[in-house]
């Protein structure tokens, strides 16, 4: 049995962390789990896990260090590895969705497994250890272009934006996003084999918390790529949508939590190349 007292010898590990409940972390990771593996990066400011869909979509989950009751990362090494996010979420949920479980994580050194210790809060003297194998991380795509400027920024209520995406025709495979300083400000057009539909959202809409757009812009994306954010929207309170001059779409989502500590997810979505 792995010693669960994190005061004992944390210096021998590259990374150690603990939290009273892993439920919020589980929900955050499930929201970006659209691939088998993720790049796990532990930094002094917190955890970042990243998954990619080809070279078109990149999603990251951010867990700032203040979400943990204890958090330690060796400063003289880079703690970054590839891990099965499917196995990680399965382990975090090992006692079931209704159970609050404390979580401890240990990573000894490069090539070592990530060790988890989970203890349900409703049952005393019960503890589970999980070892998850790790691999050398592939390089993560750098999708941001420093030369690209921001052309629009929207802050939306996550639940309302989710409802809008749910209403989009499932048979469509392309979404056109039109933004303008003039009414109706936002229009979303979807295209399928035979169908075309349009939804308009003025900046005065209850969905819109803020709107900034200095000139009209029209961008096209694969609708299945946009739909990848739906799980994250379902557990978030608001979403910040940013469009760059190169067409890159950035969506930043704040997780809805009971406490004041924050967790985030972030999605970069590349536009259809036909327009760029």
Would you write up a description of this structure?
With 276 residues, this protein is mainly β. It has 2 domains: 10-135, Proliferating Cell Nuclear Antigen (Box); 150-275, Proliferating Cell Nuclear Antigen (Box), CATH 3.70.10. It contains 5 helices and 19 strands. It has helices spanning 23-31, 85-92, 158-167, 223-227, 230-234, and strands at 15-19, 37-43, 46-53, 57-64, 70-73, 79-84, 101-107, 114-120, 128-132, 134-135, 150-157, 174-179, 186-191, 196-201, 208-213, 217-222, 236-244, 249-255, 264-269. A 10-stranded antiparallel β-sheet has the order 10-6-2-3-4-19-18-17-11-15. The chain has a 5-stranded antiparallel β-sheet with strand order 5-1-7-8-9, with helices on one face. Strand 2 (37-43) and strand 3 (46-53) form a beta hairpin. Helix 1 (23-31) packs antiparallel against helix 2. Residues 1-5 have low confidence and may be disordered.
